[in-house]
Design a protein that fits this description.
Helix content is 26%, strand content 29%. The protein is of the alpha+beta class. The longest helix has 24 residues, at 4-27.
Length: 94
């Protein structure tokens, strides 16, 4: 279980863009059985070049947001958590 403030931040960001997240996951073949917003329990956020980068993840997938816009989704793996620059795991838009 996550702390209430972390859980609230995850839900707020996903609620803002759930349709776009769903399309991203579907396009990448990452939609699975029993997929729910509640499955997302981790969040990592930082600012680079005046843009807020946020990674929200479940046990199976990770979604990168730039500010509040989801831009990529990948299968989740633990190397992402300790990375110096987690954004390098994703394909960033030009």
């Amino acid at each position: 279980m996550t702390a209430p403030t972390v859980e609230a931040a995850i839900h707020e960001l996903l609620d803002l863009a759930w349709n776009l997240v769903y399309v991203l996951l579907d396009d990448r073949g990452l939609l699975g059985e029993g997929f729910f917003v509640e499955d997302f329990t981790g969040i990592h956020s930082w600012v680079a070049e005046d843009i807020r980068h946020t990674v929200i993840h479940s046990r199976e997938v990770a979604v990168l947001f730039l500010d509040t816009r989801p831009v990529d989704a990948i299968p989740f793996h633990h190397d992402l958590l300790g990375a110096d620059d987690p954004a390098t795991f994703f394909h960033l838009p030009d």
